[in-house]
Design brief:
The protein is mostly beta strands. It has strands at about 20-30, 35-40, 45, 60, 70-75, 80-85, 90-95, 105-115, 120, 130-135, 145-150, 155-160, 170-175, 185-190, 205-215, 225, 230-235, 240, 240-245, 255-260, 260, 265, 270-275, 280-290, 295-305, 320-325, 335-340, 345-355, 360, 365, 370-375, 380-390, 390-400. A five-stranded mixed sheet has the order 9-15-14-11-12, with no helix packed on it. It is elongated. The relative contact order is 0.08.
């Protein structure tokens, strides 16, 4: 040993020749700095400069002062030092870390498209790899790098020559080969595959995608949805469900599940379902096309069923004295017809109430012996029409769509 370890140091009892060297490691930091670490007969020492007899060695691990260290290993990634001693076991420590500014390339997006920009790929389509590259580090890149593409195990590369500023993102489009057969293809894109650029994080440079290649003339994917005129109904009222199906191969078969409904399941295309209890209920539609392809749509708490409000005294005979057409209400209005022999002059009051008890603003219009009510300004849903006719109070339920 040279330097301060070879000058008059007799801690190992062999005179002033200094301790014996048992093992050595060199740590090269990304900024160009270097640290030399040695295992000796009196401990672990380090220096940042070798200057012959002027070298200044410093004790690296305090616990190993004057301990024989036979072996030494350093993990460059984080500066971890492992020292194997004679009679004292193994010691683990960290070398002093050096913080440096480095770029950090991230592959933030990797999308496969055809010549039309669609992600639906068919046999024979020209394929393009669309990448978004971001530098999230603290230093711009100063050199180009290689991007590798692995397609079902086969690898090809492209060169990227632009420098990327700190915080900047750049889009890259690379032309790939046309698929010759239908099936599933796994693609992996990796930035700086030859590790030309020193980065602060090497673990976010790649992405993997899987693409399904369809035969020429294959149908579009089967897509399922459904809707109702209003998802809010009163207890005991019915509601019709309308499917919206596209793609696949017609004809379709339908399988509905109605939580809390009557019926609870149906295979009709447009079923009508009644709900007997208040609450919120899920609806599921599963559709199968002619080739056996299945697609489903599930909507949680889709139907809201509310208790009907109390309307006061109701005389059962009034239900035969008044009629509402149409019900459910469509085209923004409904008409009220009275039993033959009755006059609207005996209709003393008329109110439209929501299931929450809110009174709606309505303006009746009488025409040709009939009374019309506009619903243009009323939100679709379930309502109760309250009236007093011939001195009797009554109510009837209305569904506005």
């Amino acid at each position: 040993m040279e330097g301060n370890l070879g000058e008059g140091d007799d801690r190992d009892g062999v005179g002033e020749t200094g301790p014996s060297l048992r093992s050595a490691e060199i740590i090269n930091y990304p900024n160009g700095d270097t640290k030399y670490v040695v295992a000796t007969s009196i401990g672990v020492f380090s220096t940042e400069s070798l200057s012959g007899s002027s070298t200044l060695w410093e004790l690296e691990v305090d616990q190993l002062d004057n301990v024989v260290v036979e072996d030494l290993d350093v993990r460059i990634a984080d500066g971890t030092i492992v020292a194997g001693t004679v009679g004292r076991g193994a010691f683990i420590g960290l070398a002093e870390q050096v913080t440096v500014d480095l770029p950090n390339l991230e592959l933030t997006s990797f999308i496969i498209t055809n010549q039309d920009g669609s992600t639906s790929i068919t046999v024979g389509d020209q394929v393009f790899f669309n990448l978004s590259i971001t530098n999230s580090g603290s230093m711009p890149t100063t050199s180009g790098f290689t991007i590798s593409y692995t397609v079902n195990g086969d690898v090809f590369t492209s060169d990227f020559t632009e420098n990327i500023a700190v915080g900047a993102s750049i889009d890259e489009v690379v032309e790939g080969a046309s698929p010759s057969a239908a099936g599933s293809i796994t693609l992996v894109a990796k930035l700086d595959s030859e590790e030309i650029i020193a980065e602060s994080n090497e673990n976010d440079n790649s992405q993997t995608v899987t693409v399904t290649v369809q035969e020429i003339g294959s149908p579009d994917p089967l897509v399922v949805d459904f809707a109702v005129a209003s998802s809010e109904v009163g207890v005991g009222e019915s509601i019709s469900f309308d499917p919206a199906v596209s793609g696949g191969v017609p004809p379709y078969t339908y399988s509905w599940i109605f939580e809390g409904g009557d019926p609870g399941a149906s295979t009709e295309e447009q079923p009508t379902v009644a709900y007997g209890d208040a609450g919120e209920y899920d609806v599921v539609l599963e559709v199968t096309d002619a080739e056996g392809t299945i697609a489903a749509e599930s909507k949680t708490s889709f139907i809201s069923v509310e208790e009907m409000v109390e309307t006061g005294i109701v005389d059962a005979t009034t239900s035969q004295l008044i009629s509402i057409y149409p019900n459910p209400v469509v085209n923004n209005s409904f008409k009220i017809e009275l039993q033959e022999g009755l006059s609207f002059q005996s209709l003393n009051s008329l109110r439209l109430i929501s299931l929450s008890g809110q009174s709606m603003n309505i303006i009746p219009r009488q025409e040709a012996g009939q009374l019309f009510i506009s619903t243009r300004s009323i939100v679709p849903g379930a309502y109760v029409l309250l009236y007093e006719l011939e001195g009797k109070f009554g109510s009837t339920r209305i569904l506005i769509r």
